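Lab notebook, bench 4. Still working through the backlog of constructs that have no structural model yet. Next entry is a single chain of 195 residues. Request: give me the structure tokens for it.
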Amino acid sequence: MSYLQVPIGWLQFWIFTALGILFFVSLIRALMKRTPESGGKRAAKSRIGIILQSVAFFLVGFGGVRPSLPLLSPASIAGAVVVLVLMGGTLWLFVASSSALGKNWGLEARMRTDHELICNGPYARVRHPIYLGMLLFLLGLSVALGYWLQLVVALPLFLVGTSIRTNLEDELLDAQFGQQFRDYAQSTPALIPRL
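Model written out:
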């Protein structure tokens, strides 16, 4: 075991793998359902945020997988439950959010000419639930692989990338919807829902 890795069990690794595959299948499905668009506005700077978020995922996932906990040990079961909750939340947030967005969903910050302001589903609780799901994925990856020290560097990097993307998306929405978006933004937190 590496000094950078805390002990993990096979159970938490395989739960992460299974739910991670389901997440990527959902992502591919959402990409395939996108409709062509013309006109609209794009914020190319959002790619910087995507790169920073990607580097954060790479940092947390870099290293070998070396499960060493007994399969049904309390630590292995606890790790599996945490991964199940984090990755289950990731999957639910992405599927529910991309479904609520419909044609509005895209990888980079952009505004369609026929864009709609979505305030229902997960968007009733947070303005950027997909990024919250990505944060849960990052944490789930860290728990599944046991790489907590990398998370110390990756998490701030992820949050900076997310901040770039959410700020650009909010600017585009404000420009398109004006006071309607400002009212929504004032009542709905950006990333972490109010309890």
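Notes after review: The chain has a mean pLDDT of 90. The longest strand covers residues 41-42. Flag for follow-up if needed.
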